[in-house]
Each structure stands twice: as C-alpha cells, then as structure tokens.
Amino acid sequence: MTTEISELVQARYGKFAAAAGAAKTSCCSKPAPSACCALGEGLYGEAELASLPELARTLSRGCGNPTGFANLQPGEVVVDFGCGGGIDVILAARKVGERGKVFGVDFTAQMIERANEAVAQAGLQERAIEFRRESLENTTLVDSCADVLISNCVINLHPDKDAVYREAFRILKPGGRLAISDVLLTEPIEAGLRERFQSGWFGCMGGSIPEVDYWRTMKNAGFAQIQEVARHPLAGQELVEMAGCPGEEFAPPAPGKDLDQVQGKVVSVKFIAMKPALVATQGSGMAGGRLESVAAIAQESPKSGNMLIAGGILAAIWASICCGIPLLLVTVGISGAWISTLTSFAPLRPVFVGLALVLFGFAVWRAYFSPKACAAGAACAEPRAQRKQRIMFGSLSFLFVAIFTFPWYAPLFL
C-alpha cells in the first residue's frame, strides 16, 4: 500500500512538473487574493515572491514558508525535504550564502529537472546547491550532515511519516533543527471518512493525521522542543484546493460531502523542533548503546569547538594552580583527545585519553594521598587553610576533567 501511494503521488507531481506548473488552481503558493495565500499566515512576502523566478513560483505547492522561521545563518547546511520546483532551496541558498550548502530532495525526476532550471534562472548555479532524486525515507545523505531541515507541505503526502522523521533525525547534526510547514487534523475523524480520503489519496487530505499522532511521531523519532510558530485553519475554497493538489488537471477532486465533514478540523501548522545535542543511539559498547560524542558536535560547529578549546585552557590554569605539572598534563591529554577528534588525527584519540587517565590518577594520588615531606623530628601537620585551598583547587580541577571526559565515560552508565 505504501509503495502504491508513493507511485501515485510521484506520477501526479511528475505530470504537474512536466507541464511546468500549468494548473488552474493553487495550493497556497501562488500570489493571489485568496486567504490561501495570506501573507500574514507564515507564507512568502511580496518582496520574496518578486525576487523568485516565475518557474519556481508556479511549481510551488506549499502551505508555508519554512525559510521565514528557520533562522538560517550564513555557512549552514540545509536540507529541503520535498523540494519541488526549488522555491525554498533558492530562498535558503540566499540566506546561508556562499559558505553554506543546500540539498534539495525530491522523488520526482521532472521536479528535479525543473528545480535545476529555476536555480539557474535565479542566478545561483555557482552556489553549493545539490538536488537529489531520492525518497524522503532514504535520502542517501550521510549521518549528521545538516544544520537545518526544512519541508513545506510534503510530509503529509507520505504514508510512512515515522520513516520520514527517523531519516530527518539521522541526517541532522546533534543540536540541529527542523522548520516544517504541514497540514494536520485538529482531531481524529470518523474511520469511514478517513478510508475514503485515503482511497484516492486526495491531495493533502489523503495523508493528513491528527496532530496528537503527528507530534508523537516526531517525539518517537527523537525530536524535542517542538514549538508551534503559526497555524492557519483551512476551509472553503482553500480546503478544496488543498484536497486537490497539485491541481484538478492532475489529481481527482475530493468529494464535496466528505470535505464538508472536516470543515474546521484541518489546519496548516508551522513549527520548529530540535535534535538534542546529546543523543542516545543504537550501537556497540558496554552499555548496549553509545552517546554521540560532544566532540562530534564540535567537529560540525566551529563555535562549539572554540568553546571546548577555551574550556581546555581554563582547566589547564586551574590544574596548574592546584597540583602543578601532573594535572596540567592531564588537561593537555584531554585537550589532545578533543583536538584529535576535531582534526584528521581522530585515531590518536584513545592514546590521548589513556595518557590523560593515567596522569589523572597520579594527580589524584598527589593531591590527596601523597605523604608530606617533613624535616626530621618536625611535626607534619598541614595548616588547615592550606589544606582547604588544596582540596578546593583539586576538586574544581577534577570537575573540569569529569566534564571533558564525559563523552567517553557516559556510555558506561547510559
């Protein structure tokens, strides 16, 4: 059933793209006076639309503008799930600039071809833009490659939303974010009515699910901090058009009597969500799983890497004040482990970690258990203030060491 639906949707949108968007009706994308294209509902502004190639505008069948609330930054890597004719890819490429990169994923060959044409018309052919003809359930992109994933009224078309969000989670970097616009139901609908919508997979109604199930799907995939940005009820002609996407020439219209029963129950929702910075994943190890290393985050984010280096310097200062060279070497060993992860010398990380642990053990012995050298016949009592200072500095230094080694010992307990 899932394969049949995917082939049906692919055929409809392929014909639509081949006709270069020659549909009589719009799905909340073309500039029009209808409420469907209301500029205040999280869609495109007049200036944005004017700056886009006509091909990208006419091929758009979205229900929002994810680039408008994704907070895209220069240099970021963005993936657009269901890129269509490339409207959001173009807008994203302009925001991430020359140092950034945008991947557009769509399973329709005709759409990919048109999207490349639209990018060229926008004058962005020299930018780092790559279109891939793949399913959203298996994009073939590498793990943790994207800072941001956007999607515009596409995920509702897919029957297996669990697989789509698992794939989105996989390709996002730890700490990465989603910016999604999609069509949901505010409440469950009668089983027979749902079956009729699904029997013809009518536009955005065929795959729309109750929002409580949608949010559960995202949480099950691992996403957190789901925040709604805006919502827009779909009713009247707007609902008719959404249920007939990509257009009446390419898809059968949904029965009017069935649409009457969902009036007030269909909404276009814009939302953001996060992939947690520390993520428990399947794998080998003493705990039956592993924790994605904080170092991996630093590897993908220069800002995080700078913070780690600054933390290493601070830990070194504390270590040298407390216990002199031995604990300073511990910090050097741990910092070396971080640096080896951030560079091509990752295989050396275990060596640095081993060195750090050995020196750490020596530092603990020296700070707390080493006998105090005393002159013959002299009392060996250590001044209380001096002991208090030594223990304080030692404890703070050990705290830094514990924080810096967290990615390596955490899997033993999680």
Structural notes for this entry:
The chain has 414 residues and is α/β, with parallel strands linked by helices. The protein folds into 2 domains: 2-276, Rossmann fold (3-Layer(aba) Sandwich), CATH 3.40.50.150; 282-370 and 380-412, no CATH class. The chain is 46% helix and 15% strand. The protein contains 16 helices and 9 strands. It has a 7-stranded mixed sheet with strand order 3-2-1-4-5-7-6, with helices on both faces. A two-stranded antiparallel sheet has the order 8-9. The longest helix is centred in the C-terminal third of the chain and has 22 residues, at 302-323. The radius of gyration is 28 Å and the shape is globular. Residues 25-40, 280-305, 340-346, 373-379 and 408-414 have low confidence and may be disordered.
Poorly predicted runs are: 25-40, 280-305, 340-346, 373-379, 408-414
Counting DSSP E segments of at least 2 residues, the number of strands comes to 9
Gap between N and C termini, in Å?
A: 38 Å
The CATH architecture of the largest domain would be 3-Layer(aba) Sandwich
**Assembly state:** single chain
**Rg, nearest Å:** 28 Å
**Content-based structural category:** alpha/beta
Number of self-contained structural domains: 2
Largest sheet: 7 strands, mixed
Question: Into which percentage range does the β-strand content fall?
Answer: 5-15%
Q: What is the CATH C level class of the largest domain, in words?
A: Alpha Beta
Write down the overall geometry: globular
pLDDT averaged over residues = 77
Strand order of the largest sheet: 3-2-1-4-5-7-6
CATH topology of the largest domain: Rossmann fold
